[in-house]
Design brief:
- With 169 residues, this protein is of the alpha/beta class.
- It has a single domain, classed as 3-Layer(aba) Sandwich (Rossmann fold), CATH 3.40.50.2020.
- It is 29% helix and 37% strand.
- The protein has 5 helices and 9 strands, in the order H-E-E-H-E-H-E-E-E-E-H-E-H-E.
- Strands 5-6-4-3-7-8-9 form a 7-stranded mixed β-sheet, sandwiched between helices. Strands 1-2 form a two-stranded antiparallel sheet.
- Strand 7, helix 4 and strand 8 form a beta-alpha-beta unit.
- The radius of gyration is 15 Å and the shape is globular.
- The two termini are 21 Å apart.
- The relative contact order is 0.17.
């Protein structure tokens, strides 16, 4: 499936979840073409170097857990503050329409991970997740996003291993 064919299933929703934000609604894409999305997101990932997939709340759970299952890997949750029982590691960050905190369960055993999320916008969520992974002995081998809103970030110049299926300049 080409990127152009995928984009036919994505609509722009203005002023959601906050005025001035244009939300990319890709739920029809998942409904009709989930296997194709997973294949595209998993392409070029060094699966032999991955122990677990880290999924970022909430739509990253959908994509990340499906990729983990497809490739016979474990799955690690990164959740918003207060959603995981203690103990947790925390990291606060800014995003395009506010501030938030992410948490994950502490880990001492070294593991190699793939970080998965749905949309990369300003990069605050991704940077907080990277920090959490580094604090918890997770070595990031790759990052996979369905959509990268490149006009909101320049993370490709900062982070080498970001793979995105659909890029918006």
């Amino acid at each position: 499936m080409t990127k152009e064919e995928m984009e036919k299933y994505i609509s722009n929703v203005p002023n959601f979840p906050k005025k001035g934000v244009v939300f990319k609604d890709f739920s029809p894409l998942l409904e009709e073409k989930l296997p194709e999305c997973l294949a595209a997101m998993g392409k070029d990932i060094p699966w032999d170097q991955i122990d677990c997939v880290v999924g970022i709340e909430s739509r990253g759970f959908i994509l990340g857990s499906a990729l983990a299952a497809k490739h016979d890997k474990g799955f690690i949750l990164v959740r918003k503050k207060g959603k995981l029982p203690p103990p947790v590691s925390s990291e606060s960050y800014s995003l395009e329409y506010g501030e938030d905190t992410l948490e994950m369960k502490p880990n001492t055993k070294e593991k190699r991970v793939l970080i998965v999320d749905d949309v990369l916008a300003t990069g605050g969520t991704l940077k907080a997740t990277i920090s959490l992974c580094e604090k918890n002995n997770y070595h990031i081998k790759a990052i996979s996003m369905l959509i990268n809103l490149k006009f909101l970030n320049n993370l490709a110049s900062e982070i080498d291993n970001i793979h995105s299926v659909l890029d918006y300049e």
